[in-house]
Amino acid sequence: MQLANWAGNHVYRAAQVHRPATVEELREVVARAPRVHALGSRHSFSDIGDSAELVALDGLAADVVVGPVAQTVTCSAGLMYGELAEALAGQGVALHNLASLPHISIAGAIATATHGSGNANGNLATAVCGVELVTSDGEILTVRRGEPDFDGLVVGLGALGVVTRVTLDVEPAYEARQRVFEGLSWDALHEHFDDITASGYSVSVFTRWGETVDQVWIKSRVTDAPEQQREELFGAVAATVDRHPILGLDAVNCTPQLGVPGAWSDRLPHFRMGFTHSNGEEIQSEYHVARRHAEGAIRAVHALGTTLRPVLQVAEIRTIAADELWMSPQYRRASVALHFTWTREPEAVARVLVELEAALAPFEARPHWGKAFRATAAEIAPLYERLPDFARLAQHLDPRGAFRNDWLGRHVLADAP
């Protein structure tokens, strides 16, 4: 039976998928495989996670351990974020943020610098303070924040080893609420962009690049102070019923809105963990620009509206804080992410990406590693000043090239053997 990614736009070429029940079994598999890669929750939209052989981590014990002073949690890297959130529910602790979907694996999200939103919130990989991985010789390597090469190991793109366990920063559990505002004008978005993105803990702007911005989702932490409920946001009107990011779709699978408080894990994602959020009939792309380029980049994409809309379901604009992780799209620059959910028409989407990437090139846009994009390794290299260091680290940890694959050769390590 053929194994495909969640979207169905990529069929894995692997002849074998290993499901080790222990780390020792995993070490043996990795050490003897000529070419191998870790298989996550398959939410990537390319062959980034493909190889001749694959290893799935869902057979390893979850083993969720909260630190003695409740500042960290250590767990299997194969867990989904939603599963980890359930395990943390009784521990009184929480993560700083979550992505739009809680159905993604921790290891895969970290390796690709997947993110949520918020001016002050780093991507999900920034919560990592410890990593355990199996290198290509079958050895176990454990590295903690502050040690040499840690900042190069976290967003590893699958090139360095199979991550087995991670330690994440946690904080006291908190509640959040979200409200949706509709019909924001483009002039208001550009004039008040900083105020809008600062209006909540996590803010998402949804649009189809038409005459107006469709929706603004504002997620706020619940505090002891009374909520300052607002009926409008710079001319946008508060929604009176729950909304789906894609206009016209039923919001039944979305997390509750209308300002109703709930656990952090039930509000920060857009979609509920316990429901099927989509049937996978989509392809996704995303590009990150420095915050100072936000207005220019948004205007450049808006000008392509008529080109994009025939294959576009919805686009999302978010902000992410800067970090120090070598291969993070937010490396040393506060960023604005421009996300696109396309129809599942690979050839049509590929044609659109040519124009979209050309329009964003003047703004030094960095693509999301887990999404669909066309930029080559030569085009990406100038965007990552630590890429040479990452390549040396990959050569050091994987001298036989067991973790190299076609995707890495096309987009990151052009001289990979």
- Helical residues, percent: 10-25%
The end-to-end distance, rounded to whole angstroms, is 30 Å
Beta fraction: 15-25%
Alpha-beta content class? alpha+beta
Rg calculated over all Cα atoms: 21 Å
Are there runs of 5+ residues with pLDDT below 50, and where? none
Summed over residues and divided by their number, the pLDDT gives a mean of 95
- Count of DSSP-assigned helices: 12
Based on the structure, what is the oligomeric state of the protein chains?
A: single chain
Number of strands: 20
Looking at the structure, what is the overall shape?
A: globular
Largest β-sheet summary: 10 strands, antiparallel
Describe the structure.
With 417 residues, the protein is of the alpha+beta class. Helix content is 21%, strand content 25%. The chain has 12 helices and 20 strands. It has helices spanning 23-32, 81-88, 106-111, 150-153, 186-191, 193-197, 294-302, 305-308, 346-360, 377-380, 387-397, 406-411, and strands at residues 16-18, 36-39, 53-56, 65-66, 72-76, 93-94, 128-134, 140-144, 162-169, 171-172, 175-185, 202-207, 212-221, 232-233, 236-238, 262-263, 283-290, 312-320, 335-342, 366-367. The strands form 4 sheets. Strands 11, 12, 13, 14, 15, 16, 17, 18, 19 and 20 form a 10-stranded antiparallel beta sheet that branches. The protein has a 5-stranded antiparallel beta sheet with strand order 4-5-9-7-8. A 3-stranded parallel beta sheet has the order 1-3-2, covered by helices on one side. The longest helix has 15 residues, at 346-360. It is globular and about 60 Å long.
